[in-house]
Amino acid sequence: MLPWLAAAAAVALWLLLLAALAVATRNPDVVPVPPTAELAAHSPAVVDLITGDWRLCDEATSATLLDLAARGAVRIEEIGPELSLVRLRRDPGDLRPYEKLVYDHVRSLAVDGVVATGALAEGSRNLGRWRKSFRKKVIAEARAEGLSRSRWSRAQAVLLTAAAAVPAVAIAVAVTVSDKEHDGGLGAGILAFGALVALMGRLNGERGTRRGAEAAGQWLGVREHLAGTGRFSEQPAASVTIWGRHLAYAAALGLAPRAVTSLPVSVPADDRRAWSDYGGMWHVVDVRYPRRLLWAREPLPMLFYALVAGFFAGFWTWIVLLVLSALDLWPDALVQPGFLAVGAVVAGVPLVYAIMDLTGKAEIQGQIVRLRRFQAGTKGNNDPKYAYWCAIDDGRAREVKAYGISAAMWHPLSEGEKVRARVGRKLGWIDAIEVVERSRLHGTARYDDTGEHRIDAPENLGEVRIFDTGQE
Amino acid sequence: MITLIVVAVVAVLLVLAAISLYNGLVRKRGAVDNAWAQVDVQLKRRHDLIPNLVETVKGYASHERQALEAVVAARSQAVGAQTPREQAAAENALSGALKSLFALAEAYPDLKASRNFSELQEELSDTENRIAYSRQYYNDAVLTYNNAIQTVPANIVAGMTGFAAREYFQAPGDERGSVQVRF
Question: Which Gene3D superfamilies would you find in this protein's record (chain B) (predicted)?
Fold first, then answer.
């Protein structure tokens, strides 16, 4: 019992030390200055970081693109209420690393130097890696400007790690003593040490410096000013031509939701609304994934399923009609024709569809706009079963139905590839598919989306308290 | 009495359905008008750039009178066009005249080197691209609207309330597909 009490005490002491250090290293208080129009030299992304509890929001990427537009590296043009374009300029000038990341993403998508704003979510980049890269680059700049720093200093990290060894050893001893075979102590100790170090790492993150808190207070004053003077919430992204960098800062400060949502730089592409550049111009294509009752089905197995479905439908109809006829609610003479008719209809429709698709395939040529797989049940033992979908824009309509495809054919494909496919029009199944032209976005991004990452900066769990000065 | 109520309910449902269809058609027609206004903005922008271009070219190649007059005449035609079909034909002719003018500029190194000229050339190229996108946007709106007024049951409401099919803004043959406007 005593070893366990000692271990519990050691863990409690270590947690106390962690809590004390967490309090000591909490974010400094941010005191907003009175409303001001004075813009400091920080970029919108850095402003997003320091005014958002030293946590970067998705708005930062959109704000960065707006800032690039305000500075003339790109131009945002409104063509219609649902269509705006981002046009690259010839020389973007000197860009910060994270600005270059955004600029390169736009450039990778551009067709003749132009990309529709809605299409900014497209592309073959690994979005998680891209976001992480953006975030780390912004943090690097914030640290270089003295606005942010890692929560644990090197000394604090070493102290906590070394101190974690004490409760780990105590636990190891307790396990060894209480175990009849006297083994398992080492493993328990290692596990405990790992858990404590992981907890310490979890609490690590960015925290503001005194200078950062002052800058954040200044920017909160700007926020008050912008909220009071400009109607930024309804401004489209193209209005950056009028508002300039103010719109970019408004976006970073959470005041321009319309402009931010119209520039989906760091959000995943929509499953049902794709942007395609097939034919040379960006256009939207609505993708439907119909229910798989009579769609996205392979014709050959469908023959079997149709017969089984027809048999069961006929059988249950026969039972029901027998009961009804016994109750004099259905004529005896029509029991047999009744269940045969139901069985024939249930089996007949898919049978006809399957035979039509087996005997005559259509050939379509176009660009893959969506490749998706959705879970369609389990094979047992929690092994998920997937339905694989491939939507092809053939340039004829703005709405396409995604086809079903086998996993083996699906895996090597990429969105953006131009393909020629042999499909069954009735059951919506791709029988064969051939890549005619590789996607220009195929594989990894055509630009360096990682760069140098020497900063370990997980999410900051610290809090920033904002004091209302009461000054307007 | 029951028959009367049934008839009245059916009549009310029909009127509500007709109002809903009518409102839907009005929205789609509004979208077409709006899309055409966007095309118009881009075309006007293009027309406004041409006098500056002509003046710039005159400064370096004043004796290329024929080409300059062709551009001015084509611009006048384009400005005066009324329907999308007329507009498309006039814009096509204007594009042809501009291409000839830019081809002539190749023979005048001073003109080619002029910053004003190269900026106008780039601006016109961008505008052509915007026109192409506006045209696509307009044609998509027209397709949606025309489909709506021709499909059952909206075609009944459309026929009774005077919704007519709209013209597409047809692209000149060589501009279909990829938009690569290079003067």
Answer: LemA-like domain
